Amino acid sequence: MCSCTNKISWSVQLMSACGCSLIYVLGNVIPWRSLALLGNILLLASSIVPCLVHFFGLFFIPESPRWLVKIGRHKEVYATLQRLRGKNVDISHEAANIKVKFKFYLIETEFLMYLKTVGVGLMSLQQLGGVNSITYYASSIFQEVNFSRKVGTISLAIIQIPTVVASVILTDKSGRRPLLMVSATGMCLSGFIIGLSFWLQNLQQWKEISSNLVYIGILVYILTHLIGMGPLPTVLMSEIFPINVKGSAGSLLIFVNNISEWIVTYSFNFMMEWSAAGT
């Protein structure tokens, strides 16, 4: 189950990178109002069609065996597993394994608060690190330091997809924790470089160098975010929680993630007016 969820998480991250790259490229040839209209039309279409397919598909899929175990409908577990695995497959061992694991998870309730703290921390830091402020306002940031918006946004479009693919490979080889540490360190250092560059701009010193430093800082920031803090919190969310709280914990973490994103996106322009270097 975790393996399947991980693949979905990586797929979402990859599709998100493709979408951002496409918008960055189109933004250099289409006026922003037309781009906003096109984006909303595509968003509406991409939301309605999958939802309709999903709605009708729900009538043909069986209940989750783990959910059936959770609510005590043990007899239906075998029928569901047999339908999922095939008529000629022996599912007795898998059914017994699900029941044993569920009992084991119920014993570990004292550990849940720690897991929720880790999950809330990762999902909030994913957004409070400021990635969406850079993603949404990259063009304005480049313009503010007199760097070519076209070069900057196209560079961001080019690096995103290969970085996500590299992240998938690195995660299995190096592990989650090392990638998160490298990612957080890279984001911190690149954020410092961007802030230092704006500070130099305010002092009217090394303008050409500082504008190039902003460009390098933003590229490094996006690269390091995409290899760790971008996809991994969602992947970890699917791995760390036991079955009996996976649904409620996942809802809580997605709520925290979206609220954090809204705070960063809403406050960014006000903070930039206060102090670009400080922001």
TrEMBL record:
Bilayer topology term: Multi-pass membrane protein
GO molecular function: transmembrane transporter activity
Family to which this protein belongs: Belongs to the major facilitator superfamily. Sugar transporter (TC 2.A.1.1) family.
Name the UniProt record assigns to this protein: Major facilitator superfamily (MFS) profile domain-containing protein
Pfam families assigned to the protein according to its UniProt record, in alphabetical order: Sugar_tr
Keywords linked to the UniProt accession: Membrane, Sugar transport, Transmembrane, Transmembrane helix, Transport
Segments passing through the bilayer: 12-30, 36-61, 178-201, 213-236
GO cellular component terms, semicolon-separated: membrane
InterPro entries named in the record: MFS_dom, MFS_sugar_transport-like, MFS_trans_sf, MFS_Trehalose_Transporter, Sugar/inositol_transpt
Cellular localization per UniProt: Membrane
Domain Major facilitator superfamily (MFS) profile, first and last residues per copy: 1-279
Gene3D superfamilies: MFS general substrate transporter like domains (1.20.1250.20)
